[in-house]
Amino acid sequence: MSGTTLLTGATGYVGGRLLEALEEEGSRVRCLVRRPDALAGRVGPGTEVVAGDVLDAETTRRALAGVDVAYYLVHALASRGRFEDAELRGARTFAEAARDAGVARIVYLGGLGSGELSPHLATRQEVGRLLRASGAVTVEFRASIVIGAGSGSFELVRALADRLPVMVAPRWLRTPAQPIAIDDVIAYLVAARARPAGSTVYEIGGPDRVAYADLIRAYARARGLRRILVPVPLLSPRLSALWLTLVTPSHARVGRRLIESLRHATVVEDDRALEDFPEIRPIGVEAAITDALATHS
After folding, report:
1. pLDDT tens, residue by residue, 238-247
2. Omega into 179 within 30° of 0, i.e. cis?
3. Which DSSP string do the residues of 280-297 spell out, in sequence order?
4. If DSSP codes are grouped into helix, strand and coil, which group holds residue 69?
5. Is the pLDDT of residue 76 over 60?
6. Tell me, what's the pLDDT at 193?
7. Residues ≥6 apart with Cβ < 8 Å to 208
8. Under 8 Å CB-to-CB from 19, ≥6 apart: which residues?
9. What's the average model confidence in pLDDT over 156-167?
10. 252 vs 75, 157, 297, CA distance in Å?
11. How far apart are CA 231 and CA 246, in angstroms?
């Protein structure tokens, strides 16, 4: 597609990496952000930055004018209060504005999981349903843990492994997940500008199925650290959140909400993404951690 691409969430981790990729390929990008100054010096000369908020219908409609493809990478995990309300209201506002503007395609990054889900995962999947209701072709990618320097899940692993030589390992640390490297996420998001022809939900992940405890061990090995995890049958997600506040206060609010989701397996059950995007072959956990550490240093 040769028209304007709207990017929401450009000040976030995934959005910032996607902005770089879109600019590198020469796309005409417009970023919708609440604080344009946050992108000062971080965008190329051909990128437009406009002030607005997906919770505000008028600024969202203006931002979507003349847009062919829109990336919806907004989430409210770090917000105070009920983040679910803000996420769903923003998705409804965006979907209505996209329908009115005649946007051809929406690309969205949500979360893996099935069955009874945590508020975080359930809300992410409901956002996808609301975006599909816009009538635009909507490509939703559902991912588990994203490994990369700056990713909330990975930074939680980093904080725990760096600070705790010995840590308790509650049951949720043993829940299976299927992490994916940030570069592979970006590759999927870029490719989705033109494929597939109709609205689709894709489950994406790397080749390894691991638990959060395995990620901590893999990170420690990559750093040359000796870490001991002591399994315990207790420490519910609520108590774990309090423990997290003590050991990683800078990640406490997002971490508490992520922990609620770690009770649920987040693994790929449908591998159509590998069939429809054959040029993308996600790397494994150890390679992804090595890349993340290289980026951080």
Report:
1. 656 655 665 6
2. no
3. -----HHHHHHHHHHHH-
4. strand
5. no
6. 94
7. 178, 179, 284, 285
8. 7, 10, 29, 31, 42, 43, 47
9. 84
10. 17, 13, 24
11. 19
Nearest to 32 by CA among 47, 51, 17, 45: 51
Q: Are 6 and 67 in contact, with CB atoms under 8 Å apart?
A: yes
pLDDT of residue 160: 82
pLDDT for residue 186 is more than 60 = yes
Q: What is the pLDDT of residues 219-244, one digit of tens each?
A: 999 999 999 988 877 656 565 665 56
Q: Distances in Å between the alpha carbon of 294 and those of 85, 145, 149, 166, 222?
A: 37, 19, 9, 25, 11
* Tokens (6 digits) for 36: 């344009």
What predicted TM-score, i.e. pTM, was given to this entire model? 0.91
**Exposed, middle or buried, 101 (CB in 10 Å: 0-12/13-18/19+)?**
buried
Q: For the chain, what is the mean pLDDT?
A: 87
Q: Are 186 and 151 in contact (CB under 8 A)?
A: no
Measured CA to CA in angstroms, residue 77 lies from 138, 244, 279 at distances of 23, 16, 32
Query: Which string of b and e fits 132-148 if b means at least 16 CB within 10 Å?
Result: bebebbbbbbbbbbbbb
Given a contact cutoff of 8 angstroms between Cβ atoms, the answer to whether 98 and 62 are in contact is: no
Name the 3-class secondary structure at 175.
coil
The mean pLDDT value for 101-110 works out to: 96
Of 73, 12, 74, 77, residue with least CA distance to 38: 12
